[in-house]
Design goal:
22 helices, alpha/beta, 23 strands
């Protein structure tokens, strides 16, 4: 059985690579700094399959952590761990931070010194038993190639103009090329371009790279684009990179080769087109001009540029359209293993929205849940202990998101659960439809149709309204419908103007938000408001995408036509409705009342303030 030693296994590309390796018949040793971090990664190796149920790969049992640090002598490994690592057949070196602003001493330690330690390890393996393959993950802007690393002096001199991050990473590339040549070890150098999220659902934990551009666009700093139509930003999906690395590890007779992982220019947008796409998803104004990257670099390196907060080093990833990269070697390998590695243009809105979410939420946590995608909606999903039970699909309201209903979802461990972010909220891209509510409904219907079997649908507030509409359209896809304080009534007329709504949302602070939540009967008193909820809402409203969507949704809810259910309201007479009587602003219209309606002494947001009580009542109603 092949033994693989991998560094960087807890990073963006490393975790995806581990998932790929876990599907093969390998023993894998993973360099990690702590067992606590390793436990987080172990949980991520459980994947969701088609119907949302978790399937644990048997390969996970053959993946082991070794505690150490790239920047330490001997990688900081204990004697027993070093002895284990020295039995490796393949080394995958993917370690190193994605932080373009690190200083020279740190960059030297994590890249150049780490390269020396990895070569020392490779040398010991080569002398004792032979190392089958060394795979080094670098970056597409490295100037060293299979042809020029024998005469590196001119290139080394040119690196004085590079940032410490880039310079040390490139020197590490050179050093490992030289060492592998001296040791006669087959070396595969993999040069990914800017890595973006999964080609399946867009999850992008690494907020450097494209995230810098998304953040700048959200702050309305991209009216003038660097390079315009004469430059572009090469992308590659992280899961595609992991598949490629896993394929390299399968090579029985590897040869030394350099592989560039990036889409062809003809299939990629220019910087202007890319930024225009980002502005569309973030719902801000499009760019109107362009500036030379060289000139912009000078501006960003000035005191004025430092106040703007965009690192000039971020411009290093932008490429002139006339710059060509040798793609044949990578394409041959992709063809050999049947890998389809084109950038999925349809997933880009999800990647942008995911990055936008991560940039405003400093530490988004959904412990035990996996990111997914149902129809056009981003999801958080978790398997249940009883596979015979229908999955529960939770739909949030305004000033909310999938994360806000996690405490309620936790009350149903026996069920598979799926929490969606509505279009333009949380991690989901906006639907860009002419009618706000209709776009929300159709997106939810598509998400429901993605399930192989009928779901139990639970909607809160706005989510209750949308769930009722969805039930009327696809009743065969819904096992049971439960509405929690559904918005089946027009909102107050003061929300008519989306523009005024947006301005008011922009001005909200913690104290004023709590005051508004109490005034609107969302909670009964201040102790009723979970602190995490206030933090979540204020973070969400930092996003222009979420602010605009919330403002327009509130405006749409003032119109009576939003509450006309098709084909009619009779379907709701079979529906379970939980209604909080402490909601002093709204009452459930008489035409929607049914024998299955239960009144509780709580305010509008009772699913958020009282998740355990809500779950108890839902169970009594047959969930």
């Amino acid at each position: 059985m092949t033994h693989i030693f991998i560094t960087g296994g807890t990073g963006f590309i490393g975790t995806q690579t581990l998932e790929q390796l876990s599907r093969e018949d390998y023993t894998v040793s993973v360099l990690v700094r702590s067992k606590a971090r390793w436990e987080q990664i172990r949980k991520q190796l459980d994947r969701f399959i088609g119907n949302g149920q978790r399937e644990t790969s048997a390969g996970n049992e053959r993946i082991f952590p070794v505690i150490g640090d790239l920047s330490l002598p001997g990688l900081g490994l204990s004697a027993s761990d070093m002895a284990s690592v020295l039995t490796a057949d393949v080394i995958i070196h993917a370690g190193g931070p994605m932080d373009i602003r690190i200083g020279e001493s740190e960059a030297r330690a994590v890249f150049l010194q780490a390269a020396e330690e990895m070569l020392n390890l490779a040398s010991q393996i080569q002398m004792s038993k032979g190392l089958q393959h060394f795979i080094h993950i670098v970056g597409f802007k490295s100037p060293f190639t299979d042809d020029n690393f024998h005469n590196p002096a001119p290139i080394i001199a040119s690196l004085e103009q590079e940032s410490p991050y880039e310079a040390m990473k490139f020197l590490a590339d050179l050093r490992i090329r030289q060492g592998a040549k001296q040791l006669s070890i087959p070396l595969s150098v993999v040069h990914p371009s800017v890595l973006i999220g999964s080609s399946e659902h867009g999850d992008t934990p690494q907020t450097g790279g494209l995230g810098i551009l998304v953040r700048a666009t959200a702050r309305k700093l991209m009216s003038i684009t660097p390079g315009g139509n004469s430059h572009w930003l090469p992308f590659f999906h992280v899961n595609h990179a992991a598949e490629f690395i896993s394929a390299l590890a399968k090579e029985s007779n590897p040869v030394s080769q350099t592989y560039y992982l990036l889409d062809e220019k003809k299939q990629s947008p220019s910087i202007t087109e890319l930024v225009s796409g980002i502005t569309k998803e973030l719902r801000v104004s499009k760019p109107w001009g362009a500036i030379s990257p060289k000139l912009l670099s000078k501006v960003l390196g000035s005191p004025l540029g430092r106040k703007i907060g965009i690192p000039k080093e971020s411009l290093d990833f932008i490429v002139d359209v006339n710059q060509a990269y040798p793609l044949t070697a990578a394409q041959d390998m992709q063809q050999k293993y049947g890998l389809d590695h084109a950038v999925n243009a349809s997933i880009m809105p999800h990647i942008i929205s995911d990055l936008d979410f991560r940039l405003v939420h400093s530490n988004p946590q959904a412990e035990g849940y996996m990111r997914g995608k149902r129809g056009p909606l981003a999801t958080l999903e978790r398997a249940g202990s009883d596979k015979g039970k229908a999955p529960i699909l939770f739909v949030h309201g305004t000033l909310s998101g999938a994360d806000c209903l996690l405490p309620l979802a936790e009350q149903f461990p026996e069920h598979a659960v799926c929490l969606v972010d509505l279009p333009g909220f949380g991690r989901s891209p906006y639907h860009h439809g002419a009618d706000v509510i209709e776009g929300h409904i159709e997106s939810l219907v598509q998400a429901i149709r993605s399930f192989k079997a009928p779901v139990t649908l639970v909607g809160h507030s706005l989510g209750g309204l949308l769930a009722a509409h969805a039930y009327a359209r696809v009743p065969e896809q819904i096992h049971r419908l439960h509405l929690l304080q559904p918005a089946l009534h027009s909102a107050a007329r003061r929300y008519r103007s989306a523009r005024i709504n947006e301005a008011a949302l922009r001005m909200l602070r913690a104290a004023s938000l709590r005051k508004q939540l109490l005034a609107q009967s969302c909670f009964t008193d201040i102790s009723d408001i979970p602190p995490a909820y206030v933090t979540y809402v204020l973070a969400e409203l930092q996003s222009p995408r979420v602010r605009k969507t919330t403002a327009e949704t509130l405006s749409a809810l003032t119109r009576a036509e939003s509450f006309t259910l098709q084909p009619n309201a009779r379907l709701l007479h079979q529906t379970s409705i939980l209604w909080g009587t402490q909601d002093r602003l709204y009452q459930l219209p008489e035409r929607f009342r049914s024998e299955r309606m239960v009144e509780i002494e709580a305010a509008h947001h009772f699913p958020i303030s009282h998740p355990a009580l809500t779950a108890q009542l839902l169970r009594q109603q047959g969930l």
